[in-house]
Design brief:
- The protein has about 425 residues and is mainly α.
- The protein is built from 16 helices and 2 strands.
- It has a two-stranded antiparallel sheet with strand order 1-2.
- Strand 1 and strand 2 form a beta hairpin.
- Helix 10 runs antiparallel to helix 12 and helix 14 packs parallel to helix 16.
- It is globular and about 60 Å long.
Length: about 425
């Protein structure tokens, strides 16, 4: 009997919906686990912070935020993190001056040291946030576990899911992750519709944000005095403050390679990090205890009483916090730059309000944060989002869109606060 040699019809291609459905469960799992790791590290760091800055000085009869104690703790933190970088396998990952939110896949041996260095940094007071190292750890864990549990899934999927999930958890909303990913995709050649490409990362970000919200109840609203309808004075104020914020942060960005080079010449983490700790202690003595730590709790304290400090005090905290961010990143502490940059922007905005009382605190704060973040992160959508969410006023969004234009002209094409491995600036 002759065989049927008629050609077989090729299988019909999967519809986009059928291709996206299998990504939901992995994205949900990555979102929940990434958020839980962030919350665990934050909680452990908070407990250690309470020991270092409350229990121990009280037991010793030393002022919690006396100049002496700030110098002691920040120097000790530099020594502790230096030991981790020097002795723990993997050396706590790459030089933090060369890392950003888009993390490489690190070998598993690096992760314990990176987590330990991050917790010590968060508890000890250097002006950095958890975002860069936690994203790096979550990216590595998602990649290595995903490749083993679901080997047929493309390896490039896992880092994107982990990054989106961590950003969603950090900000308590998936919107920040969606904006960041959309901005990254704009510079790449992708297949399919935009929402097909962001579907799985958005699921992961939503899962991460919802987990953080249910467990920790994060809030970025500073509860500033309500802002009504904007007028032409508000437009001018927002444009000027955002531009000043961008210029101020760009000064730190310009200095970044040189400050990093000074610490790099020390050639050993047990020299660079303790010296960095001493410098940070001296800066804290100048700016006060509010210029310590990643800055979110301290920002809330500033915004709770916009009239509680003079223009000189606000300005001092602005400059000191920016200098502390520059030193902490340059000397080798593991951490991110977004949260301390938010403090700088808030303090700058309140300085403007103190100098010119007609500047509404919400306008000053939002515009200041926008300008500083544009220069530090070079992420336009994320800078707009963070600035807007701090004041929870729809009327401010239009002002920020206008204010972002002159600020962006000042920063575009210029160096950003991230270095190449050879120490040169990235444009």
């Amino acid at each position: 009997m002759a065989q049927d040699t008629a050609p077989q019809a090729p299988p019909s291609p999967a519809t986009p919906a059928r291709a996206l459905l299998p990504t939901i469960l992995p994205a949900l799992a990555v979102g929940v686990l990434a958020s839980l790791l962030l919350l665990l590290v934050s909680e452990l760091a908070e407990q250690l912070q309470g020991v270092l800055w409350e229990n121990l000085p009280d037991a010793l009869g030393v002022g919690r935020y006396s100049v002496l104690w700030m110098l002691v703790v920040l120097t000790a933190t530099g020594i502790a993190v230096g030991l981790v970088v020097w002795k723990v396998p993997g050396h706590a990952g790459p030089d933090p001056a060369t890392t950003g939110l888009d993390a490489p896949v690190l070998p598993p041996v690096v992760l314990p040291g990176l987590l330990l260095a991050t917790m010590l940094m968060l508890a000890g007071g250097p002006s950095l946030g958890p975002e860069n190292p936690i994203i790096a750890v979550n990216v590595a864990l998602a990649y290595w576990l995903g490749r083993r549990l679901l080997p047929r899934a493309p390896g490039r999927v896992w880092p994107v899911l982990a990054e989106a999930a961590t950003i969603g958890a950090l900000f308590g909303t998936p919107v920040a992750a969606a904006l960041l990913i959309s901005e990254a995709l704009a510079g790449r050649q992708t297949e399919g519709a935009l929402w097909d490409n962001v579907f799985a990362p958005l699921v992961a970000a939503a899962a991460g944000a919802l987990t953080a919200t249910l467990v920790a109840h994060p809030s970025f609203d500073l509860d500033l005095p309500p802002f009504g309808e904007p007028d032409w004075g508000d437009v001018l104020s927002a444009m000027v403050i955002a531009s000043v914020g961008a210029l101020l942060a760009m000064a730190a960005v310009r200095a970044f390679p040189y400050v990093h080079g000074v610490f790099a010449r020390l050639r050993h983490p047990m020299l660079a990090l303790p010296v960095g700790g001493v410098v940070l202690g001296l800066l804290a003595a100048l700016g006060g205890h509010l210029t310590l730590f990643k800055g979110l709790d301290e920002v809330a304290e500033l915004a709770h009483d916009p009239e509680g400090w003079t223009a000189g005090e606000f300005a001092t905290m602005t400059v000191v916090k920016l200098a502390a961010l520059l030193v902490a990143t340059s000397c080798g502490f593991r951490g991110g730059r977004i949260f301390p940059a938010v403090f700088v922007g808030v303090a700058l905005g309140l300085t403007a309000h103190a100098v010119v009382p007609a500047v509404h605190p919400a306008v000053g704060v939002a515009a200041g944060v926008l300008g500083v973040l544009l220069a530090i992160t070079r992420q336009g959508w994320v800078s707009l989002f963070v600035a807007a969410v701090l004041v929870s006023s729809p009327a401010v969004i239009a002002l920020l869109c206008i204010a972002s234009l002159p600020a962006w002209l000042l920063v575009t094409g210029r160096p950003q606060m991230q270095l190449r491995e050879d120490g040169s600036a990235i444009r």
